[in-house]
Amino acid sequence: TDYLNGCVKVVHPQDMVYSASFSSVSQIVPGEDYYTRDSYPGDDYSGHGTHVSGIIGASVNDNGIAGAAFGAQIMPVRVMYSIYDDLGNITGTGSLSDIVDGIDYAVEQGADIINLSLGSAQSMGAQSDLLFLQAVQDAVNQGVLVLAAAGNDSINIDDYGSVPSSFSETMTVSSVSNTGSFSSFSSFGES
Known about the structure:
- This protein is 23% helix and 19% strand.
- The radius of gyration is 16 Å and the shape is globular.
- It is an alpha/beta fold.
- The protein has 4 helices and 9 strands.
- Strands 1, 2, 3, 4, 7, 8 and 9 form a 7-stranded parallel sheet that branches. Strands 5-6 form a two-stranded antiparallel sheet.
């Protein structure tokens, strides 16, 4: 586990998983589903969670990609669910209480890293932002590294107060192109 800096259990919120088999991921450990309130988070329709989990933990098997942390265990925790927008596109939604519960669950189960590929492009309101921040701070205080997606809104996350990506306690990740420059759609900021 040297390449993981001692971390072996990665939590990814399976925000939008469709018939996930997880066969290409190194090792799956039990997770939780805060949308359907069962222990099987693999019953949704977008595939975003499965895709990100593959980027994190895909096995080295000469069949496709190797994950960035290919020896890690993945704990799927679904806190979001899919809906169709007015144009018929699948998008995700969820509740702050489910996100907080998912973070708390991951910490209780011994997660080393929590990946939050979710968020709001702007503040959710002072009280909601504080609840979200407290959950992230509690995780960090337990020694968990919390990663957050910057988002796909082409905005400065600090100017808009995006959560959780603008929290100083998170390590926020933006998208880059094949040349290493920011992707045209990627949000960004100093946070």
